[in-house]
Amino acid sequence: MRKISLIILREYLTRVKKKSFIVTTLLVPLAMVIFFASMIYISKFSNEEQFIIALDESHTFENRIPDTETLYVKFSDSSLTYLKENYDQMGYDALLYIPPIDIQRPTGIKLYSRQNIGLQAKSHLEKHLEKKIERLKLKGAGIDESVLKDLKVNIDIQTIINKGEEEQDSNTGIATVIGMIMGFIIYMVLIIYGTVVMKGVMEEKTNRIVEIMMSSVKPFQLMIGKVIGLAAVGLTQFILWGILITLLQFAMGIYMGQEILEMQQMAATQQVNGQPDMDEVLLLMNNIQNINFLQLGSTFIFFFIGGYFLYASLFAAVGSLIDEQSDQQSFVFPITMPIIISIFIMMTISQNPNSDLIVWASIIPLSSPIVMPARIPFGVPGWQLAISCIMLVLGFLAAIWVAGKIYRTGILLYGKKVTFKEVGRWIFYKG
Predict the structure, then answer these.
(1) How many CB atoms lie within 10 A of CB 247?
(2) Interstrand relation of 110-113 and 159-163 (parallel, antiparallel or unpaired)
(3) Which domains does the chain have, with CATH numbers?
(4) Within 10 Å of residue 407's Cβ, how many Cβ atoms?
């Protein structure tokens, strides 16, 4: 155990002292904050005010189109020729021309501008003109608009999970979002840090460092120490990212407080204009409160760690088989394929979280680290969760055993193309 601890410490200190680790740890949070700051500034500049002058020769729209936060429309009685030549000199960005039209077939409406006016402004104008013509058609047909509104029905089916006499509200949308986030986080960690483990083994094998280390430790101890040490490196990086992102966001809030406040005010204005149903808001908040975050968090951590150790062991075994980057694809593919398939299965969970495919994928160790955390928000029977956890532990132990067998022989093998047949013999070799 002492030797494994020394290997873990060596792997950890070697990695965290590298310039690449320091640069990555600093740049990723900075890049995220720069991204969000850029989004705020882009949103601010993309919402610049636009002024449009309109000529309504049909006298249909009562010289009024409602303004928005950034779009202002003013009607004029001047001639079309004059406005087309002078609207930009008058301080307007575009000219809206409405000829005499037949409300049954409204055509010929044009929007003149020196440059592209933007899709949002065009959509706003079209939406208002369409609504006005619809009202005129209803009036011509003798239909009261208020009666038509009363005929419209909006049905929102409330989903309830009932177990015996206990009933609990369910929200598929929230469960889908939370499940997807957890699944993708684990997917990224398995791919990124699994590859780091593999390249670390390849580097030591290529530099012949492993030959010196093998004189004092067993190959299995070396592999376990490397996997755990790199896991500690990843955990350290995640913690530092969390701290740095929090600090940088705080600094960004101080520096860009006014811009953020303006965006919040705009969002609040849009929400008021949209007149959201308070019952729906309260239902959403209630559904969020009903989520068992303790179970969610503990399950995520368990499958996060279990999935990492399972796949990191396999990646370490692959790293011991190859000497050159060009050889890695054929051995990496069988490992990454279950991860990719798991992502596709995870994306179908919201359609039927209790289908046979989803249930089995959440139990099989190669796919459960991604599928089960994404399925948890939908509600998983306790016995299925227990079986999945036991299977993941057994799968991890089996992966360690298989990887140890491969690692023991492959790490000292140089200059030879290894085949899958040879690897199979190593796994079942006694001694």
Answers:
(1) 12
(2) unpaired
(3) 48-148 (3.40.190.10), 170-269+278-284+291-427 (no CATH)
(4) 28
In terms of pLDDT, which residue wins out, 41 or 282? 41
Query: What is the spatial distance between Cα 373 and Cα 136, in angstroms, rounded to a whole number?
Result: 54
Tokens describing residue 44: 């601010």
Confidence of residue 163 (pLDDT cuts 50, 70, 90): low
Cα 330 to Cα 238: distance, rounded to the nearest angstrom: 31
How confident is the model over 170-220, as pLDDT tens digits? 555 666 777 778 888 888 888 887 887 787 777 777 776 666 666 677 767
**Which sign does the torsion angle of CA 391, 293, 297, 281 carry?**
positive
- What does pTM read for this prediction? 0.63
* One-letter amino acid for residue 31 of the chain: A
Q: What is the DSSP pairing of strand 166-170 with strand 94-98?
A: unpaired
Distance CA 250, CA 117 (A): 37
Give the C-alpha separation, 98 to 107, whole Å: 9
CA distance 80 to 112: 11
pLDDT at 278 over 50: no
